[in-house]
Amino acid sequence: MSSYHLDHLEYLETEAIHVLREVAAEFERPVVLFSGGKDSICILRLAEKAFRPSEIPMPFLNVETGHEFPELIEFRDRRAEELGAKLIVRTVDEAVEKGLATPTPGQTSRNQLQIPVLLGAIEEFQFDCCIGGARRDEEKARAKERFFSFRDSFGQWDPKNQRPEIWNLYNARLNPGENMRVFPLSNWTETDVWEYVQKENLEVPNIYFSHERECFFRGGQWLPVPPAHDGNGKPDPYEGARPTEKEEHRTMTCRVRTIADMISTGMIESPAETIDDIIAEVAAARVTERGTRADDKASEAAMEDRKKAGYF
């Protein structure tokens, strides 16, 4: 009698597929949060394996800050079209115009403003479950999340009041107005993600690989120089996010480890041109990938505070 043992990646894949199928069975209106980043790319492949040959039974949702990398937007739109999925895009700019989000004077990062946009989209489409690519190894607040992370009727998360998950049994019960965030990649690491991308031969945006980009040094890290203002008579959307005369800036060979928007994404100097190069680089890294995000570096409690208010 022979037995079959799953290797590490196969076990993680099986676990994530099980979670996705649980979502499809338990919720009426789930949605996949798809940004075009490496984690959500893995989610899409897992969804294909969970539901093909049927269509993926949930639309994709992305909340734009208005400061996205053009390479990421192109990849997001193309990938959704290739999969024949419905892609819903909601923007911070639209929310500000409608008075649903209010920027703080002097605030450059728009990550906090994504919260009312996300909660508004959940209410607009009556989504009862949002599937995200967050992993516990990314950051302290994310490490506190369950696979099924309950949100109250205000979209808020209480890290001290979470449901137990014993023997892979998930409590999906909701009252009207409440919703669930589900994280199939919870037990994955950054290395696992890249090894899965390699194993499945998945395409990722080219900014994950080494390329030349004009950057400037601020807050202890290199940030990309935003595109020039087109002088269309509207306020500069990157005001405050451009290098000053006193800040060092230069063209450098770099890549991203984790993608936010152009205001928050730290660039790392890197010669990595292949996935093997990236895996080796991650193995030698002494800073977490979220350690390259300017919005997280601003405060040790920044992510947890945002998540309590309804962030991804």
As a percent range, the share of helical residues equals: 25-40%
CATH-level-2 architecture of the largest domain: 3-Layer(aba) Sandwich
- The amount of beta strand, in percent, is 15-25%
Number of structural units classed as domains: 2
Give the neighbour order of strands across the main sheet.
Answer: 3-2-1-4-6-5
Topology pattern, helix = H, strand = E: HEHEHEHHEHEEHEEEEHHH
CATH topology of the largest domain: Rossmann fold
Distance between the termini: 46 Å
| Arithmetic mean of pLDDT | 88
Q: Which stretches of 5+ consecutive residues score pLDDT under 50?
A: none
Brief digest:
The chain has ten helices and ten strands. The protein is an alpha/beta fold and 312 residues long.
Structure report:
- By secondary structure, this protein is of the alpha/beta class.
- It has two domains: 8-193 and 197-201 and 302-308, Rossmann fold; 202-297, no CATH class.
- It is 32% helix and 15% strand.
- The protein contains ten helices and ten strands.
- The strands form two sheets. It has a six-stranded mixed sheet, with helices on both faces.
- The protein is globular.
- The termini are far apart.
- The model has no long low-confidence stretch (mean pLDDT 88).
Labels describing this entry:
Rossmann fold; 32% helix; 312 residues; 10 helices
Question: Which SSEs are present, and which pair or pack?
Answer:
Elements lengths: L7 H19 L3 E4 L4 H14 L8 E5 L5 H13 L4 E5 H6 L16 H12 L3 E3 L8 H4 L4 E4 L27 E4 L7 H11 L10 E8 L2 E4 L24 E8 L10 E3 L5 H10 L9 H4 L4 H7 L4
Parallel strand pairs: 1-2, 1-4, 2-3, 4-6
Antiparallel strand pairs: 5-6, 7-8, 7-9, 9-10
Helix pairs in contact: 1-2, 2-7, 7-8
